[in-house]
Specification:
- The structure is a homohexamer of 155-residue chains.
- With 155 residues, chain A is of the alpha+beta class.
- The first copy, chain A, has a single domain, classed as Alpha-Beta Plaits.
- Chain A has 4 helices and 5 strands, in the order βαααββαββ.
- A 5-stranded antiparallel β-sheet of chain A has the order 2-3-1-4-5.
- In chain A, β4 and β5 form a beta hairpin.
- The longest helix of chain A is centred in the C-terminal third of the chain and has 19 residues.
- Chain A is elongated, with a radius of gyration of 17 Å.
- The two termini of chain A are 22 Å apart.
- Chains in contact: A-B, A-D, A-E, A-F, B-C, B-D, B-F, C-D, C-E, C-F, D-E, E-F.
- At the A-B interface, α1, α2, α4 and β4 of A face α1, α2, α4 and β4 of B.
Chain lengths: 155, 155, 155, 155, 155, 155
């Protein structure tokens, strides 16, 4: 059964009132691949002030907080921590983004982590699209999660 | 030059006051790949009421409208139309999403289209994650755009 | 045909790019009926500072501006004016709310006017619910609209 | 006394810090009455894909989550569950909407439930207004609530 | 060390998972100074209905609730109470605003209190700017806070 | 007359439908004063990555876009450009912030500029409050505006 579907076939916000309050951590990842030229411009920026990655970091953290406003069936969650990491991969001319979200509550923060790294990637796209319109965002997935009834998960 | 970076090296919202008001259309795509089991559950839903795709469609349209709230340097744009399309690809056990956004104004709607299909994909993820935590969202890119100074673009 | 449904049966944001830019005005109404006691408390407030109605007025105007964030298929509209009026009807122990919204654009502001008076009524409910939980909000409808292709309308 | 008014006569967010944390459930209702033609178009949609009601369901759930952004003196509440139900009433050519909200906290979720069914009704209005501009939303009220100091309530 | 900066030099949302849940109260202040004429218009309003201050009060409370949407690294906090106070200071032709926010949680509400009185001041500015464009908002600071590891604070 | 007050004494969103569409620019400023220690920590950050100022810049730009969501009677405005500048003033151990907003429309962008520099200052406060709780934000005012019926203004 898809737990988000009610008995009439419509979507609902799942009742989590009987789930335990535990510490929950989720890590997610996204990758944006771009032209060598665009990556160089970001890196030059990074050596100086890293503005593109800096803005993407802020966007990712704010995105994590806005998750329940964007994803219709997501519960509202007050995060107790959020951080991102950006790894430049020269070989594939890409940036791999990792996001980590943490909460203490009745449901997991997978969607917050996924939203954070995705919005960070879209922000990089936005700031570089004048240079390269062919960028591709890919490989968005959950990396791991801990806490909660369904147990720990590693991709 | 990255046009979003000001002379001090910080990000700015680009001044578009001298750009022409034209009709602008952008099409973007995203793909979510999942287990055969998860896809079957969505398809069964779809035959009956298509709830997962229906919710993803609503989330995508609302996401398009919220783009400038999520992507820091995006201009505020009043869309004059937005639609999505979902194509089930049996062979790869995936759903390919296309989003089309339209506006009449001084700047393009690429980010709105990209945000729409991405949030639709994340919504599918959210509603199916109880069944499959290994889903991957990939191949997010601009498909085409028309209107604006930089001319038409096809991926 | 319901114009918000696309050819696959899913909802879309209607393409209004071919509609004319005209001045558009919409007036809507809502009524909240309550106990004599609750109405007296509001009126006493009104004689002094009218706080309940004053907060409802602010909520209605902010609600008008937030319409496209709340109603999924609504276009984003920049209003050029918004006001509300509250009429206390002693006989039925109720408050009748009128809201007027105005814009210059390609689509009407009916939903903005309806949202404004409805949120104003819900705000009155919220501020009086400690005194009366049986309040009823009713008779929400469009009163009139002018401008746009479908012509003027009077209820 | 209206509890939302401070000693100077202005509105405040009531201090609930001394209230108990309990499970709180609220059910609210709203009814939208329309032309036979509009109802038929929704029902035909429903037999196929139920899009109007499906979008209204999503709007209602997102509306429940946005309540404190729309109603000025409402506390922020993290819901642990939310669902809606739509009952087509042929005799009166109307749709009766029920919304149920659930939380665990220091204050009730009446406004969340009222907001959910009201926004669902406004969404139906929005999607059908091309067919019928004379629709009326009425009979919005709290149906029942459980939990909290003031005890259980049935309308 | 600035606790909001991660080891790579980018901003993060600080991990507060190990902090204690306590009752936290913060009081902040802001002052807006204006022409004698503008202050008289507000006071006349106040004698009658106090609309400018009444709207500023609502804006301040809604601003407190929106703090984490506006301040990037702020944690999401569900307030359990919020109120403002406006003191007219004839001698300096100014209005001094005090805001008090209260929560029960792992982190303080200083930013909520600061945001509340600041947005209240900006709202007064907005409503009076047709009369006086030279108004100055100043002296925004934390007045006191209680609760939390760093102990009580008085300015 | 305060133009935001209607004939019944309540606040309204002023009707601007008869005003001309012109290019409008507003510049505003805010100053945050802090301990020598806090300023040094920001400056050290700035030499390396300038994170505090970088986050404040992003917050200011997003704040400019959110102005009508925070200031109740503000019209919704689609900005065509926004930038901020931060000047470190050693002598007074403070940072002076300038924000510039630009639009083409029927009403000015003073509130957007004021909101941008104020939220930037609050963001600096948030990120440094672990080091210094006695920071003061002051001297927030409009610096200049051009465009619109009331003519150019210089503070």
């Amino acid at each position: 059964m898809l737990t988000h579907i009610n008995e009439k076939g419509y979507a609902k916000m799942v009742d989590i009132s009987n789930k335990d309050e535990t510490t929950r951590i989720a890590v997610a990842t996204a990758t944006i691949t771009m032209s060598r030229d665009a990556l160089d411009k970001i890196k030059n920026g990074q050596i100086k002030k890293g503005e593109v990655i800096s803005v993407a970091q802020v966007a990712g953290i704010m995105g994590a907080k806005n998750t329940s406003l964007n994803i219709p069936m997501c519960h509202q969650i007050n995060l107790v921590g959020c951080d991102l990491e950006f790894e430049i991969i020269e070989q594939s001319s890409s940036i791999k983004i990792y996001s980590t979200c943490k909460s203490h509550g009745k449901t997991g923060v997978e969607m917050e982590a996924l939203n954070a790294c995705t919005i960070a990637a879209l922000t990089i796209y936005d700031m570089c699209k004048a240079v390269d319109k062919k960028m591709i965002i890919s490989n968005i997935h959950l990396v791991e999660k801990t806490g909660g009834k369904s147990g720990d998960f590693k991709f």
